[in-house]
Design a protein that fits this description.
Elements: H1 12-15, H2 23-34, H3 43-75, H4 81-130, H5 133-138, H6 141-184, H7 186-233, H8 235-240, H9 244-296, H10 302-343, E1 365-372, E2 381-388, E3 393-397, H11 404-411, E4 419-424, E5 427-428, H12 434-439, E6 441-444, H13 455-460, H14 468-477, H15 481-486, H16 504-518, E7 522-526, H17 534-548, E8 552-556, E9 568-573, E10 576-581, H18 583-589, H19 592-613
Parallel strand pairs: 3-8, 3-9, 6-7, 7-8
Antiparallel strand pairs: 1-2, 1-4, 4-5, 9-10
Helix pairs in contact: 3-4, 3-6, 3-10, 4-6, 4-10, 6-7, 6-10, 7-9, 7-10, 9-10, 14-16, 16-17, 18-19
């Protein structure tokens, strides 16, 4: 099928959906999950659930025997009302137990199932959180969520069907064949077994065919959900480009692809169900005919005919579920495969086995002959060396794409250097635990992204254990306290998705307050004012100066006016340091920095003149 020009492309997360899932592999994974120490306290409950399941199957097989014997006592020469009543009572009790013991089992097993799902969901979520920056830069949130959600749901399906349906149904078949051959006719037992085998083979063949259809449906479903989440999350961009119609068309195309695959899946399901019903009907007819002839020849009584038919009917009831169970197990194996595909992904940046915690001694930062290029860039940085002494401020400037932000990512160890070293207080960041390194660094990015939570919760993200007094002090130093106090709900005001209820300057001040509250040894400012107007920039710059007091500060800036007071300025061009010095020294050299300064100054003057004329 030709690809629609607006269709979203597959991502690394979608690629997790490829591969071949095996039921045996899934059973092994489930066994490992159920054997985890966290589930040890539920072992007796698991055993009780299994026992209840087996007892239900025993009663399901023997209930028809009691009913057949009751009919025989009613019609035979030794008819006795008391015996008939007793047999009917046994039949009723066996039916009640066979029907209700599974409900008791489900009630017992529910907390076990939920605990197993929680363990695997938390593990998958935590693993995804710990994957490297490159993974999260290419992932689609909706697709990733679907992989986790479907995998966790598949775990529950597989546990229930494998433990409480497949195995017990096989036991019920063996028990039914034993009863049929010993009590009635061995030929009836043969027909029952052959019917079940034919049913299972037919179901397996068609289900295997349908698995590929379900794979395509899952891909279409993932694409549809991810596209919807992506579009709705970026609604401001959609509206800014008047792209509502385009986004609706993309959604319509994705829905058409999904519907086409759903139709194929539905039709194949109808074929599967029809074939299963035909096999079951023929098997039941075969056993009934054999028993009828045995009745005419005097080998069995009329009541035995009823018993045999009921045994077969009871056996086909779980067989119909077995067909559904087999389909769900195959699909569950696919979904669990995708989940484990995610969990088997390795982070590109990992802590060394002997990694140590960072020992902060002041916050000195040093780049020693660092070279690095990542996939998204043709030119990275090459042989970059500089030192930021503790408590000083260094600025990195240069044209777009010169490698400024790459330096910051290497400091955070989002990537590992190709050559050279990045050191904090003389310690190579590759020898440190990433968590301890990043705890020592505070970041104020160009676009501060906030959670859809209260103002207080967003500030506490910097240091969750901070007191209210520390919160107010950080907000005051970031020139945010007065704004918060004037809000109708104050600190409990929700900021909206990604902070959309706040202006750019307000979001920046929240980011600054969060960094101040974290109280890091190293402060990183990544184009922290470049998206603000001049008036707001001046206010935010004051807050940034307050946040930088007493800290090692590394700042990347596009607006050179914000770096004039830095202790040293490094000028990058095509990944290399081409100039370095103070603001005055660089202007006197009349090089690249002076040229950038001149251009920005003229642009600022032209804007001021235009504003006065207007």
């Amino acid at each position: 099928m030709a690809r629609h020009p607006h269709a979203a492309s597959a991502t690394d997360v979608d690629a997790i959906e490829s591969g071949d899932a095996g039921i045996a592999v899934s059973m092994g994974r489930i066994g490992r999950i159920m054997a985890r120490p966290e589930l040890k306290r539920w072992r007796l409950v698991m055993l009780a659930a299994l026992v209840l399941t087996l007892l239900a199957k025993v009663f399901a097989v023997y209930a028809p025997v009691f009913f057949g014997d009751a009919i025989n006592r009613m019609t035979g020469p030794d008819a006795a009302a008391a015996a008939v009543v007793l047999l009917i009572a046994w039949w009723t009790g066996a039916r009640i137990l066979s029907a209700n013991l599974p409900y008791l089992r489900d009630a017992l097993f529910a907390p076990v199932s939920q605990e197993a799902q929680r363990l695997i969901a938390v593990e998958a979520y935590g693993h995804a959180q710990n994957l490297s920056l490159s993974f999260h830069q290419t992932r689609r949130t909706g697709a990733l969520n679907r992989v986790i959600d479907r995998g966790v749901a598949a775990l529950d399906y597989l546990i229930r069907f494998l433990a409480f349906n497949i195995g017990p149904t096989i036991i019920e078949l063996a028990l039914a064949a034993f009863v049929l051959s010993t009590r009635y006719s061995w030929l009836s037992a043969v027909v029952a077994v052959v019917t079940v085998v034919l049913y299972a083979v037919f179901t397996a063949l068609l289900t295997n065919w349908r698995v590929e259809q379900r794979r395509k449906l899952n891909l279409a479903d993932t694409e549809l959900r991810a596209l919807a989440v992506d579009s709705l999350t970026n609604f401001e961009t959609v509206k800014a480009f008047a792209a509502e119609t385009r986004e609706t068309e993309r959604y319509d195309y994705a829905m058409r692809v999904y519907n086409k695959n759903m139709v194929e899946v539905s039709r194949s399901l109808a074929l599967l169900n029809a074939g299963q019903d035909i096999i079951m009907a023929l098997g039941l007819t075969g056993v009934a005919v054999i028993t009828a002839f045995a009745t005419f020849s005097g080998q069995v009584q009329a009541g035995d005919m009823a018993a045999v038919v009921l045994i077969m009917s009871n056996l086909y009831r779980p067989l119909s579920i077995l067909g559904f169970a087999f389909r769900e197990i195959k699909q569950g194996a696919v979904d669990l495969e995708k989940l484990y595909g995610l969990m088997n992904m390795k982070a590109e940046v990992q802590d060394a086995p002997d990694a140590k915690a960072l020992e902060v001694k002041g916050g000195e930062v040093r780049f020693d002959g660092v070279s690095f290029t990542h996939d998204a860039r043709v030119v990275g940085i090459e042989d970059v060396s500089f030192t930021v002494p503790a408590g000083t401020k260094l600025a990195v400037v240069g044209p777009s794409g010169s490698g400024k932000s790459t330096l910051l990512k290497l400091l955070f160890r989002f990537y590992d250097t190709k050559r050279g070293r990045v050191l904090v207080d003389g310690q190579d960041v590759r020898d440190l635990r990433q968590e301890s390194l990043r705890e020592a660094i505070g970041l104020v990015p160009q676009d501060v992204v906030l959670f859809n939570a209260s103002m207080k919760e967003n500030l506490l993200y910097g240091r969750p254990q901070a007191s209210d007094a520390e919160l107010r002090d950080a907000a005051a130093r970031a020139q945010l306290l007065e704004f918060i106090d004037k809000l109708p709900k104050g600190w409990e005001t929700r900021v909206g998705e990604r902070g959309v209820k706040l202006s750019g300057g307000e979001r920046q001040r929240v980011g600054i307050a969060r960094a101040i509250l974290k109280n890091p040894a190293i402060l990183v400012l990544d184009e922290a004012t470049s998206a603000l107007d001049s008036a707001t920039e001046q206010e935010v710059q004051q807050a940034l100066d307050e946040a930088a007091k007493g800290r090692t500060t590394l700042m990347v800036a596009h607006r050179l006016s914000t770096v004039a007071g830095a202790d040293e300025i490094i000028v990058l061009s095509e990944g290399k340091i081409v100039e370095r010095g103070t603001h005055r020294e660089l202007l006197d050299r009349a090089g690249l920095y002076a040229d950038l300064w001149s251009r920005q100054s003229r642009a600022h003057e032209d804007a001021a003149v235009a504003e006065r004329v207007a």
